[in-house]
Amino acid sequence: MELKQANRDKNRINAVSDKLLGFAYDFKRMKMFSILDRYIIRKYLSTFFFSMVLIISVSVVFDYAEKIDDFSANNAPAKAIIFDYYLNFIPFFTNLLTPLFAFISVIFFTSKLAYNTEIIAMLSTGMSFKRLLVPYFVSATIIGIMSFILGGYVIPASNKTRLDFEDKYYKKFRSESAYNIQMELESGVIAYFERYEESINRGYNFSLEKFEGKKLVSRLIAQYIDMDSLYHWHLSNYVQREFKGMREIMTMGERLDTVIRMNPQDFFISGLDAPQMTNTKLYNYLKRQKERGIPGAQMFENEYNNRFAMPFASLILTLIGVSLASRKVRGGTGLHLGIGIALSAIYVLFTTVSTTFAINGSMPSLLAIWLPNIIFTAIGIFLYMKAPK
Predict the structure, then answer these.
(1) Does the predicted model carry a pTM greater than 0.85?
(2) Which whole number is the average pLDDT over 92-98?
(3) Dihedral sign, Cα of residue 359, residue 346, residue 129, residue 30
């Protein structure tokens, strides 16, 4: 019995020893791969930031050359041009083109690795192509998370400063008057203005109708309506009618002070307001707009969906770039870059067309914004299947 117990203990010790040796071997292999991972991640991110700085520098020069006449005509101060406009233009434009920067970066340095036979050397060690993609996807994930945080929570504040500058010194796009405003303030309560002047906080030919189901129960009209403070309004030359069955009660007067839960800022919404909101504010504002029937909600919905679709574009284009550029071809880096730029142009074209469909209401916003990602995911899977293994 003691001999059998000793043999069992010996077998257990040997098993534990074998597992420890296996773990040590796996750790050694992981350590070796971690060096390769760091190499690829470093090459990816360094190429990404270098191409970003290069392209943004050129873009700033061209943008300034295009707008210098307008800046001069509107007497824009140099300090405002630098700090209010370009200091906020750079992060906005960078985030807008982040997926394309990532794609060109992958094409550029991966084709150099393939041309120098480094990809073949990696695969010849027994590394699978799937394993080779890991550091690429780690890098793309870092870029995607960075893009999501910047686009959703940092850049909106800078967009407000940039757009205020453009409205003042470049091309005025904000209006101080709104026409034919109609919105649902709450369930069954609909307000209407023929015109509203923001500069004096006055509305003209105002009406407020209340419904119970489809039945009109009261109607308040006024020639003028002025805002005293938030939700506090003064009505001038008003007529109030209440319908109770077959009876109608009419009240008239020159002035009426009342509380109406509406904010004049909602009358002047436009698609340019969407980039100035964080993800949380954009979601809440979009929800409120839809409930109250304010026009222009489509632009807000497109902006909201685009902020989630763009980070995934970096992953999708990375898959396409690695699958495309990992094969050594006679044209080398130049051929890969040419194909990469062509695919980038097609991606931008797809994005523009699908966004137009969403704005026109020809396609649901969620589908239209994600359609380029869906199509290019299929292209990426096809190229992955054809990539050298």
Answers:
(1) no
(2) 90
(3) negative
